[in-house]
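Subgroup meeting minutes
Present: P.N., E.W., G.H.
Scribe: E.W.

1. P.N. recapped why we're keeping a running log of single-chain structure predictions: easier to compare across weeks, and new members can see raw inputs and outputs side by side.
2. G.H. added today's entry (159 aa).
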Amino acid sequence: MRLAVIAVGRLKDGPERELCERYRERALALGRGMGLTGPDIVEIAESRGRRPEERKREEAEAILAKAQPGLLIALDERGRGLGSEAFAGRIAAARDAGTAHASFIIGGADGLGEEIRDRADLTLAFGTLTIPHQIVRALVLEQLYRAMTIIAGHPYHRA
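Output recorded in log:
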């Protein structure tokens, strides 16, 4: 199953990008032997619309144009909480069911459009706090790596 993180906005050089790349590289290396490839990073340009709803709609269209058919997980503060083991279980179940792609969606400054939340198989929150999209990207990549270690029985995850 090919993994992709689709995010609105460009991550600039700096510590956030380095952290994201560290977890992405770990996931790439570990996933090869377990039927998981990626995660690929797909950056969507921020909308130039005048109103928040217009921006969210334009960004949602661009996101959906890039998302491959398969598992779609939206990251949104209004989503449900899920522990790391349950998250790993969802990924493993999708892989085992023959799902070809899993996309993890991160919105821009205005959040995600309704089109994304309606279409998502799961809307996931990393708590109720508003978290900058750069930090959410690092969290998603770390959790993908953690999920892979859980699936593989690797000792990284200590619960």
